[in-house]
Each structure stands twice: as C-alpha cells, then as structure tokens.
Amino acid sequence: MSKTVLKKPAAKKMAAMKTIAKKTAGKKPVAKKTPVKTAPAKSAYAQAGVDIDLEATAIKALIKSLKYRRKGNYKMVGAVGHFAGLIDFGPLALALTTDGVGTKMLVADQQEDWTTVGIDCIAMNVNDLYVMNMEPVSFVDYIATDKLSMEKMAQIGKGLNEGAKQANIDIVGGETASLRGLVHGLDLAGACLGVQEKKKIITGEKIRPGNKIVGIPSTGVHSNGLSLARRVVEKYGSYDEKLKNKKTLGAELLTPTRIYSEVLKVTAKCTVHGMCHVTGGGLLNFKRLSKYGFVIDNPIKPPEVFDWIQKKGDISDEEMYRTFNMGMGYAYVVPEKSVACVLKMVKGAKVVGEVVKEPGAWLGEIEIT
Predict the structure, then answer these.
(1) Are residues 257 and 125 in the same domain?
(2) How many domains does the chain have?
(3) Which residues contact 341 (CB under 8 A, 6 or more apart)?
(4) Residues 285, 172: one domain?
C-alpha cells in the first residue's frame, strides 16, 4: 500500500477546507504541518488476508481479457467498472449486479445466527443498482456449502425474504451447490436485475467541481472489511465483549447492511449528479464516479465499533477509510441547490464534503490511495 500523502487537491479549495477535526469525538485535528500517522508497509487488511491493491490489479487483468461484445440487439451499454453493468433494452436499460456476504458468514457461524445474512446479500446487490438510479426487480441467490443444514437454510431464507421485502423485489430462483472439498462452511451470494428508463439513469457524468457530497449513515460495518474486523476481535477481544452502547461485538458485526431503498424517491424529486455505495475500498469507491476528485472534510461520526477496531488494531485513519464505510454507507453528489432537498428527504443525511478539480479521494488533507 502506498504511503499517506499530504497533498492539495485544489489550491483555492484547500485554502478554505476544514481538517479532519470533526472526524471522531476526542480525536485531535490533523493540521497541515502535523505529522500524519501512516499505515505500515503491509496493511493490516492485507495481513488479515485481503490485499485491496492486489485485488484491484487482478481485476484489471481480468477485465483486460474481456474483449468480446455481443452482436445484434440488447448489447452492453458503457464500459465495465461502474457499480452495475447496463444492457440496452430499447427505451429502457437493464442492469445486472452480483455480490455476496463474504466472511461475515463466519461471524454468523460463530454466533450461530444466520437470520440476517440474507438481508446483507440482497443489500449488497440492490445498493449497487441504486447508485445508477436503477430499480431492482428480481434476484437469484447462490449457496455453496460443504454440508447442507436445514436450520441454516431456513434462517438464511428468512433474511432473504426480509431483504426482498425492503427492496421490493422478487426472488425468482437460485442455486444450491454441495462442494465438499472445495468449500468449507457456507458461502452466500446472489445476482440482481434492475431496470430504468435510459433518460433517468445516473452515471456520474454530470458531476462537476463544486458539487456537494451528502453522506447517508450506515448501520455499521455492513458486509465489507470483515476479514480485518474478525482478526482484530479474535486477537484483541471476543465476540461476547460489550461496547459502551451495550451491544456485543458479535451483534455489531452481524447488524445487517442498510438497504437504501429511498433512493428512487429522492432522485425523482431532487437533482442528483452521482451516487456512491461505500463498500470494500471505502472512500476509493468515489473514484468510480468521475474524473474529478472527492474531498471528505466533515465526515459522519463513525459508530463505536469502528473506533474499537481502530484502537485495538492500531490502524491508521487512511487504512480505516480505505477499508470500511466508517459510518457512511451511501452518498449523493448533488449541485448546491439540491442539498436542502436531499437533507429533507433522507434521515441522518449530512453534507460531508465536495467535488474538486484534481482527481483523487481525500479525507481532509489525507489522500486515500
């Protein structure tokens, strides 16, 4: 992972920008000349088994080989790399996305509670559709396991049903594979289909410097960074340990991912230039939206669980914000005139930063790379 850098995204913008003094209660602000704590040469997340930089390089290698394009009707629209892939369907566009629950399943196994992971599975898919203003309509699940358990399957079904209800989608099918020797435990993933009129699709192409970033709270860790979170909990605490909010770490890590179903109503009433689902990679997700840069200088206060993970694991601000959502699970990028509209419609919404001319992603003055 590259070293933390103090850099000015745009001189005129930075002159008026706040530092990260408001990032968390009780933390000292980072001034321009104050040394910034840097992440180790090998990040804590990489030590936990997930190398974000290597993953990005591997994905580029995969995409580079995907050269074939369909002939005839219903072709792909745009390029690979946004949150969802689009398909031409006349006056409409279809969108496909796929994602899974990841190692959060290991927390469910440890807690012997699989009732909410189905919500996570659907959330991670539909939220990737909402960022393009696509309406999720149908879903298929994929379960791979070494041994079938009726209890697990029944509990997972409850979560999938609740997630479908929250997102207003049909679960039209799925696949269960018994893969003893290849899979150890149970892996839950899925794919979702969305639809929208072409003229209503939001890709980020209208984003301009000066646009405001309105952050929306997460419900906690969601379904990313669990390899690192689990490593810290298992090394420095226990799943039964209670935080100041009286919830155990196990319960915190199992809190289901928020489904941002209000998006379609917001975009119908407010002018929105782009949206971001803050998943694995943290603030780096914003770089998918535009050639311009994104400065978060007034972030949402992270829930207590993130503070616990950071202190116990001795993890830098940079790595925390490039691994976790840190309390902001979704964001709208809007012209200044639309800020009031979004704040009125979405509970907990807050202006967290703005778009600047120079490409990149910043937490105050810390460049997230």
Answers:
(1) no
(2) 2
(3) 266, 269, 270, 271, 334
(4) no
Token pair belonging to 67: 């050269």
Structural contact between residues 213 and 354, judged by C-beta atoms closer than 8 angstroms:
yes
DSSP 256: P
Cβ-based neighbours of 25, under 8 Å, separated by 6 or more: 301
Helix (H, G, I), strand (E, B) or coil at 95: strand
Looking at the structure, do residues 276 and 164 belong to the same domain, yes or no? no
Distance between CA 326 and CA 329 in Å, rounded? 8
- CATH, residue 224: 3.90.650.10
Q: Do 137 and 37 share a structural domain?
A: no
Distance, in Å, from the CA atom of 254 to the CA atom of 107, rounded to the nearest integer, reads 7
Q: Using DSSP, state whether 362 is helix, strand or coil.
A: strand
Q: pLDDT of 184-232, one tens digit each?
A: 999 999 999 999 999 999 999 999 999 999 999 999 999 999 999 999 9
Can you give the residue range of the structural domain that contains 249? 5-52+204-367
Q: Would you state the structure tokens that stand for residue 181, as one six-digit string?
A: 């020797």
Q: pLDDT grade, residue 45 (50/70/90)? A: low
Name the phi and psi angles at 3, rounded to 5: -75, 150
- 193 with 95: CB under 8 angstroms? yes
